[in-house]
């Protein structure tokens, strides 16, 4: 866990979420992550017709309120849960664009939390664009959903 002085927050941007035991969790934001989130949302919206793409929706899980970077919900999910906040059940697809600072233990905890809350799949996307898919039986080679994603490569600094 990183501890920051208040002055540090003036110079950095963080994603802030409530965590387990009421502690606030902060993840440093990046433009690369934002670009990947946008690309994922756009492609899911084009390829999975009939559902809806949500950005940073809130889900009540066993480890607290979690907000995947991108989620996809079916028309049935929307009919059942609408836009209640937080959702008491996870959307069918929960996607996390994973910063390099996240540990494997943190990722496994998040995967399990989304799946236990009802997600059909959890996708982890590295900042380099590598994708991993998880279902109730563990990691799998591809998604069960009919998608073919092409993520943008990183752009080198000028």
Characterization of this structure:
This protein is an alpha+beta fold and 158 residues long. The protein has four helices and ten strands. A six-stranded mixed sheet has the order 3-6-7-8-9-10, with helices on both faces. A two-stranded antiparallel ribbon has the order 1-2. Strands 4-5 form a two-stranded antiparallel ribbon. β1 (14-18) and β2 (24-28) form a beta hairpin. It is globular and about 50 Å long.
- Please indicate the percent range of residues in DSSP E strands (runs of 2 or more): 25-35%
The helix-strand sequence is HEEHEEEEHEHEEE
Q: How many β-strand runs?
A: 10
Instruction: Tell me, briefly, the overall form.
Output: globular
The main sheet orders its strands as: 3-6-7-8-9-10
Q: Which structural class matches the secondary elements?
A: alpha+beta
- Can you give the helix content as a percent range? 25-40%
Largest sheet report:
6 strands, mixed
Kindly provide the radius of gyration, computed on alpha-carbon positions and rounded to a whole number of angstroms: 16 Å
Instruction: Count the DSSP helices.
Output: 4
Distance between the termini: 32 Å
Mean pLDDT figure: 88
Low-confidence stretches: none
């Amino acid at each position: 866990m990183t501890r920051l002085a208040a002055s540090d927050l003036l110079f950095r941007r963080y994603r802030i979420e409530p965590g387990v035991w009421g502690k606030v969790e902060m993840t440093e934001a990046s433009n690369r992550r934002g670009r990947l989130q946008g690309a994922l949302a756009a492609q899911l919206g084009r390829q999975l017709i009939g559902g809806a793409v949500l950005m940073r929706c809130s889900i009540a899980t066993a480890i607290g309120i979690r907000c995947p970077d991108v989620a996809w919900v079916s028309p049935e999910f929307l009919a059942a849960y609408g836009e209640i906040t937080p959702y008491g059940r996870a959307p069918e697809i929960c996607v996390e664009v994973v910063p390099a600072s996240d540990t494997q233990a943190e990722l496994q905890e998040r995967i399990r939390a989304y799946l236990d809350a009802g997600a059909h799949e959890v996708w982890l996307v590295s900042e380099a664009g590598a994708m991993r898919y998880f279902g109730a039986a563990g990691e799998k080679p591809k998604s069960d959903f009919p998608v073919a994603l092409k993520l943008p490569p990183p752009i080198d600094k000028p």
